[in-house]
């Protein structure tokens, strides 16, 4: 990131989420693309995003949105966005801890079916 600009590219990953502190809302940046390495010479899209101090960025795999509960329902992307909006003003560590807790509560003892990596960044 340079001068509050972030250039992003995706390779078959879920949307990037940005919590805009000034507007107190979550913005979704979806870049559709093939998984990395699956197609030779694939032209991946890039997008430049302007950020502001206080904004929070979250990248994740599909592990949490596709987490099943005991009734066979998935957590889903809308619930991820709502959960992120609730805690986006906190530190990156607290945001991740919250998602781990919410995911465990959602699954209610049902084993984790997929990896659930997160990257959370705060703009200063």
Describe the structure.
The chain is α+β, with helices and mostly antiparallel strands and 124 residues long. It has one domain: PPM-type phosphatase domain (Phosphatase 2c, domain 1), CATH 3.60.40.10. The protein contains two helices and six strands. A four-stranded antiparallel beta sheet has the order 3-2-5-6, covered by helices on one side. It has a two-stranded antiparallel sheet with strand order 1-4. The longest helix has 16 residues, at 92-107. The chain is flat and about 45 Å long. The N and C termini lie close together (11 Å). 15% of the residues are buried. The mean pLDDT is 88.
Give the total of beta strands. Answer: 6
List SSEs in N-to-C order: EEEEEHHE
- Fraction in helix: 10-25%
The side-by-side strand order for the widest beta sheet comes to 3-2-5-6
CATH homology superfamily: PPM-type phosphatase domain
Alpha-carbon distance between the two ends: 11 Å
Under CATH, the topology can be stated as: Phosphatase 2c, domain 1
Main β sheet profile = 4 strands, antiparallel
Number of domains: 1
Contiguous helical run count: 2
In terms of per-residue confidence, which ranges show pLDDT below 50 for 5 or more consecutive residues? none
Average of per-residue pLDDT values: 88
- How much of the residues is beta strand, in percent? 15-25%
Report the top-level CATH class: Alpha Beta
What form results from the Cα inertia axes? flat
